[in-house]
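Support request from a user on the community tier.

User writes: "When I paste my structure tokens into the form, the page sometimes reloads and wipes my input. The last time it worked, I copied everything first. Here is what I submitted, just in case something in the input itself triggers the reload:"
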């Protein structure tokens, strides 16, 4: 009878040598060769990485009666076949997400006392074990402390941080890391060989890049591509994955080098019209920028893409920040391409143009214009005179913003917009983030007794620093460093 199961089930590893994660394969081999079988193992790692498959292989390896090696199951004896087919009475798989209460664990404890029916060891695989309740963990702990000699527990979880330390300390722990490209290739080649598929060059690389190290996801994509019973082409793979042509990310970067706003925005619109996965597109742009940065820093000998050679290290750093933020914003923005369009506008420092209708209106009312200008001037002087109050108001809200404001100065007031002159591009980028901008606008509006918005401009660096009212304490400096860099100095 033909096996029509999906690939990730049909081609599950059945032996230790078929496990695709190198570290896991080597560790389990050492454990089995030692013939000291631990009574509890903990397999932790991301989804789709082979934790349950490894647990089943382990169950076969410790119970196989026909193995020729010390560690490799034969897959021919009755026990191996019953485990492979899912009918072994002594292999008990429990889904902790749906059997998470203390009553479920108590039932397990009662049954565990019974001797195995046909195997040497009775193996309990508890999947998503972190879903158990606190009471259930306490009941399980008692069993792990005094396990029967015939019982082996294999706990699988995607969230080991949610497990009590008392449980972890009683297990031999194996960390299942995300698969690297070669390990994903190994998994896919097993399927290709078994199904006799014809695959164009570059297809496996594209699949591996898009699955974030998950064997299951990679095999599901290959399964979908193989449905047409034809040779799997690179073009078809990219179409399924929502990828654009390889030159697309480079085109956008080249337009940014040329500071061409129109062509940059048109290129983004073209990519969107092709139905591309914008998150993947953004990742490809970041890959090119990162390679350019590493090359200029002398950390790699790989030649960078031509389109990033026109950027300096500081420009590459700035673009990496902007595209990284865009990658996060893409997940929640109702207009898919908007985060990428904002990257272009911010990078090219496009300032809003005067609105013709508003200019004409002002020219037709010179008296009102003069009055408004005089009021702005008076309010601006008041803000300048009370700038220290702004700094004092910002300090308890965000120390890093206060530090940035001390290195800048009010430049002008244009209606309801306070123009702030800063002297470093990094400071400008920081102050223009939503988090920092909202803090400044809140305090400035309170001091001015009028709702104000913030706009930053780059000025020439001054030789004389702006005087500081009082010396910062050591704790304040540490707090600023922690807010800016995400870590506290030792």
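"...and here is what came back when it finally went through:"
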């Amino acid at each position: 009878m033909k096996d029509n199961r999906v690939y990730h089930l049909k081609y599950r590893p059945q032996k230790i040598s078929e496990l695709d994660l190198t570290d896991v394969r080597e560790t389990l081999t050492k454990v089995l060769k030692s013939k000291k079988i631990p009574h509890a193992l903990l397999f932790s790692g991301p989804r789709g990485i082979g934790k349950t498959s490894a647990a089943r292989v382990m169950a076969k390896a410790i119970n196989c009666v026909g193995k020729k090696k010390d560690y490799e199951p034969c897959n021919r004896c009755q026990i191996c076949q019953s485990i492979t087919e899912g009918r072994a009475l002594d292999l008990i798989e429990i889904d902790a997400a749906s059997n998470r209460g203390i009553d479920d664990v108590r039932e397990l404890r009662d049954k565990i006392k019974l001797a195995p029916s046909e195997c040497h060891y009775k193996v309990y695989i508890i999947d998503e074990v972190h879903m158990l309740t606190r009471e259930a963990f306490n009941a399980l702990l008692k069993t792990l402390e005094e396990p029967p000699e015939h019982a082996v527990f294999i706990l699988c979880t995607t969230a080991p941080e949610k497990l009590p330390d008392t449980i972890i300390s009683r297990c031999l722990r194996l960390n299942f890391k995300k698969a690297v490209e070669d390990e994903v290739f190994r998994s896919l080649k097993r399927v290709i060989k078994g199904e006799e598929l014809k695959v164009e060059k570059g297809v496996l690389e594209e699949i591996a890049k898009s699955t974030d190290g998950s064997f299951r996801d990679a095999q599901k994509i290959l399964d979908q591509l193989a449905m047409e019973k034809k040779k799997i082409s690179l073009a078809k793979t990219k179409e399924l994955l929502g990828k654009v042509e390889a030159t697309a990310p480079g085109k956008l970067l080249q337009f940014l080098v040329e500071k061409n706003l129109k062509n940059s925005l048109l290129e983004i619109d073209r990519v969107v019209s092709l139905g591309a996965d914008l998150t993947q597109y953004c990742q490809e742009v970041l890959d090119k920028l990162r390679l350019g940065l590493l090359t200029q820093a002398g950390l790699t000998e790989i030649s960078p893409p031509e389109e990033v050679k026109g950027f300096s290290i500081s420009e590459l750093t700035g673009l990496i920040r902007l595209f990284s933020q865009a990658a996060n914003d893409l997940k929640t923005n109702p207009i898919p391409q908007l985060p990428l369009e904002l990257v272009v506008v911010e990078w090219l420092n496009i300032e809003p143009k005067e609105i013709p209708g508003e200019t004409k209106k002002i020219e037709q009312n010179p008296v009102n214009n003069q009055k408004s200008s005089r009021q702005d001037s008076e309010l601006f002087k008041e803000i300048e005179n009370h700038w220290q109050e702004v700094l004092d108001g910002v300090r308890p809200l965000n120390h890093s913003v206060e530090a940035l404001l001390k290195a800048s100065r009010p430049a002008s007031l244009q209606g309801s917009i306070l123009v702030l002159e800063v002297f470093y591009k990094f400071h400008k980028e920081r102050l223009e983030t939503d988090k920092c901008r909202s803090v400044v606008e809140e305090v400035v509006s309170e001091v001015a007794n009028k709702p104000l918005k913030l706009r930053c401009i780059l000025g020439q660096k001054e030789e004389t620093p702006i005087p500081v009212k009082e010396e910062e304490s050591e704790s304040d400096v540490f707090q600023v460093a922690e807010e800016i860099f995400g870590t506290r100095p030792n």
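Agent notes: The reload is a front-end session timeout and is unrelated to the input. Residues 351-369, 462-474 have pLDDT under 50 and may be disordered. The chain has four domains: 7-175, 181-241, 248-347, 366-485. Escalated to web team.
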